[in-house]
Structure formats: C-alpha cells, structure tokens
C-alpha cells in the first residue's frame, strides 16, 4: 500500500523534516506513528496524500508514484484515501450530511449515488439522526465521527489519521478508536499519527517511531515508549 525509499523532506526555510526514511506498509495493516513533537510525524503523514512532496527519494502510495504525480492527478490519488484530522476540518456552514456529501462531490460522484452513500456512512458512525445539524450544534466527538464518515464515504483503501483523538476526552477517544478498528476489520489500511499513550499501549498494533526525521523503531504490537 505504501513504500518509502530513502525519502527526505526539506522545507523552504531550510529545515529537514525527514532524513532518509525507508518503510513499507502493507494492505490491511493498522500502523501507529509516534514520536516527540516536531519529530516529523505530520510531514510523514502529509506526504502520503500529497499535501507535501518529497525533496529526495521515492514514495509510492497505492500504486501512485508521489514525487512524479502531476497536480491534475492528485484528485485521482485521493479518491482512494480518506483523511481524518485532529481539528475535524468540517465546513461550518454545511450540515453533517452536506459535509460528508462534499467528499463525494469534489471527486465527481453522480448525484444519484451520493444520498445513499451519505446515509450509509452516517449510519455506520451512529449519527444518522444528526444529519441535518451543523458542526456548531455537535459535540467534539460527534464532529469527529462526522469527519470519519466523510473519510470512509467513498470506501477508501487507505485511511490516514493525524492525531484524530487529540482534541477529545478519553471516553470519546475510545469511541473513535472503536470506529477505526471496525474500519480496519473491513480490510482498510490505517496509518495514524498519535500522542495517545494509553490507546497505543492498549490496542497493540504496529508502531513506527520517528525522532529527528528518522525512523528509530518499527515493531509489531509495539508500545508508545515516550513520556509526553
């Protein structure tokens, strides 16, 4: 699903965020990406959905060569990827259903399919009864569930999550993690950057630890391993 070969990333200010990373993530895996703040986790994540380009090295995601991918082809890559953010990134003036539908509209899904898919996605995350509410009328946990519904509405092969429980209380965080586990159980690959020690240490998955832009640990059923 994902292969990085000696990937380096330098930002315009001269900072090197990634320093020669090589890693492979197979279809159906559930992977935590951990490490101190500023270690390069978010850059690692952003490269996968072509928010950023590698400065050097080779990166393949679901068959796409990221460093050679033309801008006009990026939407095609993202049709097969769902992304969930820490701050939800819901459009405030749209209802829950409209936010989920938007993910289908931007990739040109015929309107006759959108309503059914949106209904199914909202039912799947347990919020069918909130379809007509706007984000401000929802709790943080409900907003993140809507974000998850938006991420899965097109049945992606890969879900990328950047600190998806970072703004949630512990009980709500566990509810969101149960959703991710169900998504993974269907065969979807999940790559999740997180600082949540309890979740990583309880729901034991593969752990990739990044420090100073380098992978320092890659282990199956790993532990969090940091004090922050």
List the helices and strands and how they pair.
Elements: E1 2-10, E2 16-25, E3 30-34, H1 41-48, E4 56-61, E5 64-65, H2 74-78, E6 81-85, H3 96-105, H4 111-124, H5 140-152, E7 158-162, H6 170-185, E8 189-193, H7 197-202, E9 206-211, E10 214-219
Parallel strand pairs: 3-8, 3-9, 6-7, 7-8
Antiparallel strand pairs: 1-2, 1-4, 4-5, 9-10
Helix pairs in contact: 3-4, 3-5, 4-5, 5-6
Walk me through the structure.
Residues 2-226 form the ABC transporter domain. One of its GO terms (cellular component) is plasma membrane. It is a peripheral membrane protein. One of its GO terms (biological process) is cell division. This protein is α/β, with parallel strands linked by helices and 228 residues long. The chain has a domain at 27-39 and 74-219: Rossmann fold, CATH 3.40.50. Helices cover 32% and strands 26% of the residues. It has helices spanning 41-48, 74-78, 96-105, 111-124, 140-152, 170-185, 197-202, and strands spanning 2-10, 16-25, 30-34, 56-61, 64-65, 81-85, 158-162, 189-193, 206-211, 214-219. A hairpin with a 5-residue loop joins strand 1 and strand 2. The longest helix is centred in the last third of the chain and has 16 residues, at 170-185. The two termini are 30 Å apart.
